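Record now logged underneath.
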Amino acid sequence: MSRARGRVLVVDDEARIRKIVTLLLREEGLDPRAVESGEACLSAAAEDPPDLVLMDLTLPGRDGLETMACLRAGGWDGEVVMMTAYGNVATAVRAIQEGAFHYLEKPFDNDELLSLVRRALERRRLRGEVAALREQLDERYALDNVVGVSGPLRAVCAQVRRVAPTEATVLVEGASGTGKELVVRALHNLSRRREGPFVALNCAALPASLVENELFGHEAGSFTDARSRHEGRFEQAGGGTLFLDDVGELPAEVQAKLLRVIQEREISRIGGTAAIPVDVRIVAATNRDLHQQVEESAFREDLFHRLNVVSLRLPPLRERLEDLPLLVEHFLQQVGPELERPVEGVTPGAMDLLRSYAWPGNVRELENVIRGAAILCDGRQVDETDLPPRLRRPSETPAAGTLADRLAAVERQAIAEALAEESHNRTRTAARLGITRKTLLAKITAYGLEA
């Protein structure tokens, strides 16, 4: 095993023990210091926090347990190994219960001491890595890093910060591509459940027959191929957040069962009879108008009110165009490592085109447009010729000389927006537009909207 690296503070009132342990640790390649009392330990740790404290349980004045409690109260999060004389093992076990890594009986074997020190420092290192990953996760989903300064975006961020610490069920509404999952993850990471799991289910991505199984799980033998018990998303999200994306797509029978779970806070697996308590916070998202679905009896009104305790509406990009330059810069920085040369920005003409476009696919569409334009760009700035043809100004498009041409242009735009808002699900898009799927497919081909 390679030698550990770390700072170790040795605390013992016997000078001989301090000298022996310090020499062993130094030979191990560590950075040891030694003090004789609990008070001296607190002073030394405040001056230069150690990774590990190797401390005698019985000290004059402030004993080892009290000293450890003071270290923790001061915010120190390193590891503690207690050294104890034979007969004090019960107290040493209590020390472990109160946060010590382990204990070492005196007289100790040198190899045993070094092995215990290595293990303690390894746990310290792993905890540091986990903390760093948690910090990266928080940074990735922190609202402070949401790109934009517009009034509508600031209003949403303020709502999220107020709602996140509560247990309220939240409904996030917004068209496809507006960043609903980013907001939902921020709700989780800013909540008291942040240490628990974040579990998501896209209700539109599964056949109706599988949604119930994914949510509630099943018992072995409950149906053909159910060879073992399966825990559903509610159980998987225990102590954390369950994200129901595209909740408006839930089948009617699953809506009824979901309502019962929200009311009773317990589930039953398919094929099971036992009621299983669940402790989750539900956050749902939709790109549909659930109010209209309730009026059309396509979504249960009682379930809607249960989910809509707090409603967050994400503005489409066309309502926050002042954020567009910042978003463009952000996406250019993201795509930069993929390019052989840096793309530093966009020309004024290209920015005018970006501002004049309706952005039916919202921020996700903008990201794809900027990524593609940066790849095609020959210079250091994206210009009009690098942008997709659909972004051209009306004055640059062929004149629509007849009423039929103008109507066709309007129809094409309506279909493109509906496709984007329905995540290019053609069955839902046809229903949204009030036409058959066959008619929609023909128009997609005619208008060149296959992509």
Notes: Residues 83 and 108 are 9 Å apart (CA to CA). The first strand starts at residue 7 and ends at 11. The chain is about 45% helix and 15% strand.
